[in-house]
Design goal:
The chain is of the alpha+beta class. The protein contains 23 helices and 22 strands.
Length: 663
């Protein structure tokens, strides 16, 4: 799920490596044709979704805005802007010449199903919530689920702590404890493959669980050791079916039990390996105790990161290819900015043995101008429509106060750039709330996520609404991709950027739709209040008079929820990652200066000297750097990341401040 590109033509290649990914992204026959030309493709059977048990829908809560940050409660009053109020798109609407899909007019909640003509490629049948956990498919039944930390069946309120805890349990309970592999989607259904990107989020989740008291440090390091040992021993080579990766990179999807390439439509993914390595480096820094287990964690982590041959993937230097397959060889497209792959280049620049040259970052930023401009009358910024592109790299790296040459020239930081994009998407929902059911100030959020399926709704008035399965939805400079499907991860994972917009949205999603949307591992992946058709759906169910609700969790949508809530509450992930010398080195070679990098410059320089001259001692350098630098604070709320926005400000005033900053 992580392989999504700003340039939607470039994004096409990643989408077509699997029909699962093709449906998840665009579902076009043309993209599939490109895949046939370049690699052997086999069509996997569609997943059969199974609904996990849902706790009882809990009542709403009431708490102060200050409590929201301190305790995680979401007791914010409803926004003054009426949800669903119909307002016209302003004249300054974004240029949609690059749009992949533009929404049709709103559909009345009472539109009868008889007004529908559907065109769907053999979707799975609809499933409904039974109130009990269904058994795993035969392919997944052999998995032994990990130890289960205490988790209430229902919560008195959708507190941040409850959301974070349930999301953590997704990683702790669904991961295969024998090899550390994390499911791409849960329930697994008939396609039991793991996502290496989800593993990276899981490796970061375990220390969060320790700090929050949900598991012990011993439990976490045992799970981390199992995971790192598996990847260190996993076979690497050019075979079609007998390897897990090549040149230090790994296949995007691995079989949950064997750990080998799941199928021949799966590519060795450079960006998904990036998220795996982000988790590896996080654990390398966090587990800094002087005992045999944590020394081994640091040794294995250093080896895994050092083995990634970024130079091999530079088939068109200085950029890095999206991936490789034994049949099709290198994907004929490279990672160009602006999108989630910032972390990819930062890791490649910081590599101890296979570092790429700094000119790669200049090439990466050279395409920013293509999506530079205002959106919804907001400030100019570098746009990327699906919000995951703003969230992934920033889940691990704190970009507040640090700038590269491009951002310095435009008086921005990447953090502020992301914040502008989030507020712009919020404004899109408010201004276009009449287009799809439910859109408004407290209900918004577009990113790559599940959807009800490829269905065309032909209305009696001649208008058409095109729905999709998995798709990279979004709204930003030059791009609107929208079919009415809202992803909870889009808003929740934006909490560090605009909490005054996110907190009321979380509460609204829970209060209005919680009994269909909030379950064992937190919020399901997506829902669509506009979709009221009596037709088979890709996954989940259609609730009469309410809309479509997914019944799946996706690992790479769960990950940002967990990491970003923790960063909002404590800054923990950012603080640990800032101590890693490889991350600091990669940022500095990309030209970043200022902020916490300046504060840690002396330690970073010392770490680089030692690690480059004595690679075998680099794990010790991580420990030394971690101890020399400031330790993370106690479990207290992080300072409000929005200047001038206090935790006790009334939500409407806070929202007005955020919007005023864009004028």
């Amino acid at each position: 799920m992580t392989s999504r590109v700003r340039d939607f033509t470039a994004r096409a290649w990643k989408a077509t490596h699997t029909l699962v990914l093709a449906e998840r992204k665009f579902g076009t026959v043309a993209l599939f044709g490109l895949l046939v030309l370049l690699t052997a493709v086999q069509t996997p059977a569609q997943r059969t979704a199974r609904a996990p048990a849902a706790p009882a829908h809990a009542p709403a809560i009431a708490a102060s805005a200050g409590q929201a940050a301190a305790t995680g409660s979401l007791g914010l009053p409803a926004a003054a802007i009426a949800v669903g109020a119909s307002t016209a798109i302003p004249e300054a609407a974004p240029d949609t010449t690059r749009a992949v899909a533009v929404p049709a007019p709103a559909v009345s909640a009472g539109t009868p199903a008889t007004a529908v003509s559907t065109r769907m490629p053999a979707p799975a049948t609809s499933t409904s919530h039974s109130g009990a956990e269904e058994p795993l498919s035969s392919a997944a039944a052999a998995l032994t689920i990990g130890e289960q930390a205490a988790l209430p069946e229902s919560a008195p309120a959708p507190s941040l702590n409850d959301i974070e805890h349930r999301t953590f349990e997704f990683f702790w309970q669904t991961t295969n404890p024998k090899n550390g592999l994390v499911p791409d989607h849960w329930p697994l259904g008939d396609e039991p493959f793991a996502s290496i990107a989800a593993v990276g989020f899981a490796l970061t989740a375990y220390p969060i669980g320790v700090e929050r008291g949900w598991i012990t440090r011993e439990q976490a390091r045992q799970r981390v050791l199992t995971t790192l040992k598996f990847f260190a021993a996993a076979p690497q080579g050019p075979s079609e079916d007998g390897d897990s990766g090549y040149h230090g990179f790994y296949y995007h999807f691995l079989d949950m039990q064997t750990g080998l390439r799941y199928a021949r439509w799966v590519e060795v993914s450079t960006v998904d390996t990036t998220w795996l390595m982000a988790g590896v480096l996080f654990d390398e820094t966090y587990f800094d105790q002087d005992n045999p287990q944590e020394r081994e964690i640091r040794k294995l982590a250093e080896k895994l990161y050092d083995d990634v041959d970024w130079n091999w993937a530079q088939v068109r230097p200085p950029l890095i290819s999206m991936g490789w397959t034994p049949g099709g060889k290198f994907i004929p497209l490279d990672w160009k900015g602006y999108n989630e792959a910032m972390m990819l280049y930062i890791l490649a620049l910081g590599s101890p043995s296979h570092a790429i040259k700094p000119d790669a970052w200049k090439a990466w930023t050279s395409t920013y101008k293509e999506t530079w401009g205002p959106f919804m009358s907001g400030k100019p910024h570098v746009g990327f429509a699906p919000l995951f592109g703003h969230q992934y790299s920033e889940s691990w790296i704190d970009f507040r106060g640090i700038q590269d040459a491009w951002m310095r020239a435009h008086a921005l930081t990447y953090f502020e750039n992301s914040r502008i994009s989030v507020i712009g998407q919020h404004q899109y929902a408010v201004s276009g709330s009449g287009r799809f059911v439910g859109y408004g100030a407290d209900l918004w959020g577009l990113t790559a996520c599940d959807g009800p399926g490829d269905t065309t709704w032909d209305h009696a008035d001649g208008t058409i609404t095109q729905f999709h399965g998995y798709l990279a939805r979004g709204a930003d400079v030059g791009n609107i991709i929208d079919d009415g499907t809202i992803a909870p991860t889009a808003a929740i994972s934006s909490i560090v950027f605009a909490p005054a917009l996110v907190l009321p949205t979380i509460r609204t999603m829970y209060d209005r739709y919680g009994k269909w949307l909030y379950s064992k591992y937190g919020f399901y992946d997506a829902f669509n209040p506009t979709f009221r058709l009596n037709v088979p759906v890709r996954s989940g169910e259609v609730v009469p008079n309410e809309g479509w609700f997914d019944n799946q969790y996706l690992g790479i949508d769960q990950g940002p929820i967990l990491l970003m809530i923790e960063n909002y509450r404590s800054g923990f992930v950012w603080q640990v990652m800032s101590r890693n010398p490889h991350i600091r080195r990669g940022l500095e070679r990309a030209g970043f200066t200022g902020g916490w990098l300046a504060d840690h410059n002396q330690e970073a320089a010392g770490s680089e000297t030692k690690s480059s001259s004595t690679p075998a001692l680099s794990s010790l350098v991580v420990r030394a750097g971690a101890r020399a630098l400031k330790s993370p604070p106690a479990r207290s709320p992080a300072p409000d990341p929005q200047p001038g926005l206090t935790q006790t400000s009334p939500p409407q005033q806070a929202r007005e401040r955020e919007l005023a900053e864009l004028q």
